[in-house]
UniProtKB/TrEMBL annotation:
GO molecular function: N-acyltransferase activity; UDP-3-O-[(3R)-3-hydroxyacyl]-glucosamine N-acyltransferase activity
InterPro entries: Hexapep (IPR001451), LpxD (IPR007691), Trimer_LpxA-like_sf (IPR011004), UDP_GlcNAc_AcTrfase_non-rep (IPR020573)
EC code(s) of this entry: 2.3.1.191
Functional note: Catalyzes the N-acylation of UDP-3-O-acylglucosamine using 3-hydroxyacyl-ACP as the acyl donor. Is involved in the biosynthesis of lipid A, a phosphorylated glycolipid that anchors the lipopolysaccharide to the outer membrane of the cell.
Name used for this protein in its record: UDP-3-O-acylglucosamine N-acyltransferase
Organism in which the protein naturally occurs: Photobacterium swingsii
Gene encoding the protein: lpxD
Keyword Lipid biosynthesis: yes
Keywords assigned by UniProt, alphabetized: Acyltransferase, Lipid A biosynthesis, Lipid biosynthesis, Lipid metabolism, Repeat, Transferase
Taxonomic lineage: Bacteria, Pseudomonadati, Pseudomonadota, Gammaproteobacteria, Vibrionales
Reaction(s) the record says it catalyses: a UDP-3-O-[(3R)-3-hydroxyacyl]-alpha-D-glucosamine + a (3R)-hydroxyacyl-[ACP] = a UDP-2-N,3-O-bis[(3R)-3-hydroxyacyl]-alpha-D-glucosamine + holo-[ACP] + H(+)
SUPFAM superfamilies: Trimeric LpxA-like enzymes
Flavoprotein keyword on record: no
Amino acid sequence: MAVITLAELADKLGAELHGDGTVEIHSIAGTEQAGEGQITFISNSKYRKQLADCKASAVMLQEGDRPFFEGNALVMANPYLGYALVAQLLDTTPKAASDIAASAQIADDVVMGEGVVVGHNAVIESGVKLGDNVQIGAGCFVGKEAEIGANTKLWANVTVYHRVTLGSDCLVQSGTVLGSDGFGYANDRGNWIKIPQLGSVRIGNRVEIGACTTIDRGALDDTIIHDGAIIDNQCQIAHNVSIGENTAIAGATVMAGSLTVGKNCFIGGASVFNGHMEICDGVTVAGMAMVMRPITEPGFYSSGIPVQPNKEWRKTAARVMKIDEMNKRLRAVEKKLDDEG
């Protein structure tokens, strides 16, 4: 178990220490559960009331909240960021593998950097290049000529198809598939003719991808996920999509082919995006939105009908179905009033 003093934490976080810097911290917990040897945080002042009964050895908080806690405190502008950094320092998550398992199947010409570990029953095919300290979990498949950069970690049962490239310091959760065929077919008098997907997937540095997400390879050019992007669980990213730097995509989002999403966007869960269009930088899309047209101005965008009691929703749906008729009647009334005026 890692142990760090409050003084050391204050130095690493750039926080202002109030209290005993020699106190040792071994873990982080919620304000209501934290006890001796643990640190917690509040990032929203509406939770100040929890501080009165908090038993944590220290709390990360903003200056305005410090009078509400009598114990040791680390004062900082962004306690939530402090939480993230402390969680990294005290992280006890194990490696995806501890060594190169005897049951792993690794081609003779695979190039491996220093400190690479490969879990049980993983398969790494010919021509693959693995950077320093890459972790390949149990049951992973890495296809021919794929490249994985230094310090990247694949949890168990990740599939990386041929010629896919991942940059350094990436994290891919279990069950994710990178480089599967895009949905490309031509129709010949009712019969579907498959179009081989000849592009690949290029993933930048510091990209994190959740469990059971699928990112399809490009039809001709590559599908591209740029540096710092984060993608949640069970997302579908179709062929030739481009995701900009530091964009965040929440779970169950679906993106159709040849979509371009800009930098620093925030995409809410279960959103659906049409293909062959662009979303500019700095866009936030609310969860369950249906984005059918390009977005050219930064801002917050929403669509969809919030949940209602079923009886009310049925009335709403019935009215929606009559919008065209109501519009015609309204225009007729307006025309009559104009004529009479």
